[in-house]
Amino acid sequence: MERLNRKERVAAILKILSDNPNKVISLSFFQENFNMARSTLSEDVTILKKVVEDIGVGSVETVAGPTGGVRFVPSLREEDKQSFLKELCESLKNKDRIMPGGFLYTNDLIFSPDITNKLGIIFASYFRDKEPDYVLTVETKGIPIAMMTARYLNVPLVIVRRENKGAEGPTVSINYVSGSKRQIQTMSLPKRAVKKGSRVVFIDDFMRAGGTAKGIIKLMEEFESKVVGVGVFIEAKTEKKLVQDYISLLILNNVDEEREIIDVKLKNN
What we know:
Shape: globular
Strand order of the largest sheet: 6-5-9-10-11-12
Strand content: 25-35%
Distance between the termini: 47 Å
Structural class: alpha/beta
Number of strands: 12
Order of helices and strands: HHHEEHEEHHEHEEEEHEEE
Number of helices: 8
Largest sheet: 6 strands, mixed
């Protein structure tokens, strides 16, 4: 590669790190690709740390040891996160979102790359310290948010299905009780999808009583694995949840179909 000046190197290093969030990239990789001394790289990383923190997009961490290096950890400043979630609340209050039965239309938000990208950063910041091996979700509407969360945690996404798909090989299936409808439902996952002894985070778009999250916990027990975090975009206000330890970003208090009023607010975690 043609020798770059400092500004060009810092920009190139940031590009590489941001394309690989939460992944440790060895210092030797940068030394070899940019033909630079270790001391010069150390100075570049110091500049990069300050730039990233000043513009409020995350942090750059140096990892010591023989397998160490440098990584970019994306995050949102608290004021930026609050502003973003407040905008979502205002959008959700639009009466045109009300559907029969008190449901809300949210597809335009959940399938917006810009919105799910930020939601992924937020959830990843909550669960990074849990050191998960996988992010799990249930088909279908939770997939975009879970995918972005998995990206920023730098772990694989695993999708639990409502029905057994024969093409995926041997599966583990369980029955669980829907928390809101009190109906018996089924979820399935291929045996090879999650390794024994894994730590997983479950991400979903909506939670009523928590029956699905409870089912995921039960399913992971069959894999001898542990759910170390549960995150949901919107939580419906109910008297009792089947799970207690979870993170929700917004809380839906009530949908008044007759008066066309939607009461949704930020959840204080």
